[in-house]
Amino acid sequence: MSVLAKTAQAIDSLARAKRPMRLAEVAEDLGLPKSSVHRLLTELTELRIARRTPDGLFALGPRLLSWGASAADSFVIRGVAEPWMHRLRDSTGESVHLYIRHGSNRVCLASVEGRAALRPVVPTGGLQPLGIGSSGKLLLAFAPSTVLEEVRAEAKKSRMSLPEDEELATIRETHWAVSIDEREKGLSGAATSICGPEGEVVAALSISGSSTRLTLQRYSEVKDDVFAIANEIGAAVAGRAGGAA
After folding, report:
1. What is the pLDDT of residues 66-91, one digit of tens each?
2. I need a surface site. Which of 112, 144, 159, 206 has the fewest CB within 10 A?
3. Residues 100, 191 contacting (CB under 8 angstroms)
4. pLDDT tens digits, residue range 94-123?
5. Is residue 245 domain-resident?
6. Same domain assignment for residues 156 and 42
7. Are 176 and 145 part of one and the same domain?
8. What does pTM read for this prediction?
9. What pLDDT was estimated at residue 24?
10. Contact 95, 114 (CB under 8 A)
11. What is the domain range of residue 192?
């Protein structure tokens, strides 16, 4: 394993813990000798990528905050989409999420929570698999065939259920995907695509909430609003229109 790979794994370990960790915990998580992990964490601390707490534990460092902010800013679509996402939340009352595909997964770029007490909570930056949930199905439908094959291979190993070819074809035709009680009992969602200047799918916009509120009938009522907002975001990203003024 390269030094860079070990470094990335150490940072991931500290991030997953969501609390300061002892040296022995990090070493056990990485499966590496404590001496090697100590040298690595010491260098990361000197670079402010990690930090030491007063009681000698290790945690993520302040340098990652600036990196994270820069990374978020690089996703132009997020800044463009958020005002429109708030508008969609206000018109439907439901949670609104923005996803992009990252390899065989999807990443939540932005999230606007709904008004109801029962609503999905999706952390920004969190990875979720393709093929599950409305956004996962939509992004899988428009993914390259190599990605589809990879996702199917992983699903077979984990016995995860994926949409059939017929459903994916319908999603590609309609740019609309619905998931009711699939990812989590009691929750449902619907998603459409945000397209770039050449018509390519660059992201998925979804609304989600309680499956008792968001029924197929309710989705038919709000579908036009979801499509309209997605089109506005796509137009703004492509430079064909301004933001949500």
Report:
1. 677 656 655 678 888 999 999 999 99
2. 159
3. no
4. 999 999 988 888 888 889 988 876 666 777
5. no
6. no
7. yes
8. 0.67
9. 94
10. yes
11. 75-237
